[in-house]
Amino acid sequence: MGVSEGCTLKKDIHKDTLITYDDVQLPKRRMRDGLRDEHALHFFKGSI
Q1: Which of 4, 6, 26, 37 to pair with 12, CA 20 to 30 A apart?
Q2: Is the dihedral of CA 28, 29, 33, 38 positive or negative?
Q3: Which pLDDT belongs to residue 19?
Q4: Which residues form the domain of 17?
Q5: Phi, psi of 32, deg, nearest 5
Q6: In a domain, 1, yes or no
Q7: CB-count burial class (<10 Å; 0-12, 13-18, 19+) for 7
Q8: How many domains does the chain have?
Q9: Degrees (nearest 5) of the Cα angle 13, 17, 19?
Q10: Across 23-41, average pLDDT
């Protein structure tokens, strides 16, 4: 919930369904997403 600000759903989601990054449109150039990508590259060799 805390990272959903500014995001919009790409399709209708049924109640109690898990929402993934594939289901949402993220705002452009959001700092939080850039930090997540850098974290994945550093610690998980890019496996986002």
Answers
A1: 37
A2: positive
A3: 92
A4: 8-44
A5: -60, -40
A6: no
A7: middle
A8: 1
A9: 75
A10: 87
